[in-house]
Amino acid sequence: MVAPATPSPAALPRSDVSTGVGLAGLAGLFAWIMICRAYPEIAAMLGLGGPLGGERGVLSGPYAALTAMLFTAAPMAAWSVLVDKVHLRPSTGIDWSLRRPLPEVMPVAVIKLVGLWATWALLAGFYALARWYWTGNYLFAMEVLSFAIFPMVTLSVPYVIWLDRYLVEPRDGAFHFGAFVVGGGIAGRDQWDSAQIVKHWRAWAIKGFFGAFMISILPPGFAQVVEADPAQLLGNPVEFVMLLVTLLFVIDVQIGTVGYLLTLRPLDSHIRSGNPFLAGWLAALLCYPPFVWGIIGPNDQILSYEYATPGWAHWFAGSTALLWAWGGLLVFLTGVYAWATVVFGVRFSNLTYRGVLTNGPYRFTRHPAYLSKNLFWWASVLPFMVTGDGWLEPLRNCVFLLAVNAIYYWRARTEEAHLLAEDPKYAEYHAWMAQHGLITAPLMRLKARLSGDAPRREETAPFPAE
């Protein structure tokens, strides 16, 4: 049964995040990368010697990658407050004219702090039990989070008390979970709402799971970018292209990590809701470790689409011009992928509703990151071109990559269902894109023709873009 058509708005709804936020973060990240690359010269100018009197090297270690988050986050936060003035938006849930007295604030704030600290304790217990967090790149994430817990607990006290003086409704999910933890004591069981606790834990499960993952993948790409010598790579199109691809992934990871961690109401970047659909969680988690291990990846995985595939650099090795051209395509696709993260500013996160984006690449398709990522895999791996005879392996590769594409299509559908249920603005955006989106609209018309249910010009049926 087809759902009722949604009227298409005359104009594209305004984005909840301005273009300047992401650009400010991008400028800060590039500034830090330049400082890290130029550090030997800076150290020499300042008379800072290296270990045992040697010369200082570039700053390419894991803590330099972590520091890059500060250079990325600070400009985005400053732009959000000083230029966009997001702290004044009603969507923050803050009324700066309230200024409640401390005696009125403290009872609720104490229970909220109990809920917040209990949440962090349970997440720490999960990290301790899950073995995959104590091997490989995850070790760095565990080191960072172990160090961060003390300042987080300390700073949470003045932050919660200060913010509760201005919140329109201070009894949020953390309060309800705190009341649940306290039980029949000072809070009383009649003060907590199970729906609010579920909402609270959806948000923190997303932050806990994806935050650790994002921190773990910060160092490798950052080190490659800082240590690289682009001038030496210009003569090798493959290595130069892969350096640009790595740089774009560093941009994506740095800004994405800031988005997961900087969920603050004064920045209007708080999580309004986590995806309530089980299918959405399954589709998303299938794409990340540890769930992706054994399913998508190298030759021993279930959905391996890279069997006997040396890739684009191998097949085009005989033509420098073709290598540059095909490499340019890969850089373009990765650039769209990074662009889709940059425009989120401080709001990037899987499985969450934190406002509606309608600018940047979201002006052309509802799912630019998924579309560009999946096209990148086809263009870089070339799964239909294998070393060896026969047609079976190329067929398997293509079928398995199509299965991976289907997982991302599934993710897109569940994300749309979540946002359509949360915000009328997204419904307007969804309908506008179906009629006017450069990529979305033709796909919608094609699907309508194939289904025999073409929508009227002024209306659109709720089909997804990709």
Short description:
60% of the residues lie in helices and 2% in strands. The chain is mainly alpha-helical and 466 residues long. The relative contact order is 0.12.
Write the layout of secondary structure elements.
Layout: E1 6-7, H1 19-37, H2 39-46, H3 62-83, H4 102-129, H5 138-164, H6 173-182, H7 194-216, H8 218-227, H9 230-233, H10 237-261, E2 273-274, H11 278-285, H12 312-315, H13 320-342, E3 352-353, H14 368-381, H15 392-422, H16 424-436, H17 440-451, E4 459-460
Antiparallel strand pairs: 1-4, 2-3
Which features would summarize this protein structure in a list?
466 residues; mainly alpha; two-stranded antiparallel sheet; two-stranded antiparallel ribbon; 17 helices; disordered C terminus
Describe the model:
With 466 residues, this protein is mainly α. The chain has a domain at 262-466. The protein is 60% helix and 2% strand. It contains 17 helices and four strands. The protein has helices at 19-37, 39-46, 62-83, 102-129, 138-164, 173-182, 194-216, 218-227, 230-233, 237-261, 278-285, 312-315, 320-342, 368-381, 392-422, 424-436, 440-451; strands at 6-7, 273-274, 352-353, 459-460. The strands form two sheets. A two-stranded antiparallel sheet has the order 1-4. Strands 2-3 form a two-stranded antiparallel sheet. Helix 3 crosses helix 10 and helix 4 crosses helix 6 (173-182). The protein is globular. Mean pLDDT is 92; it is low at 456-466.
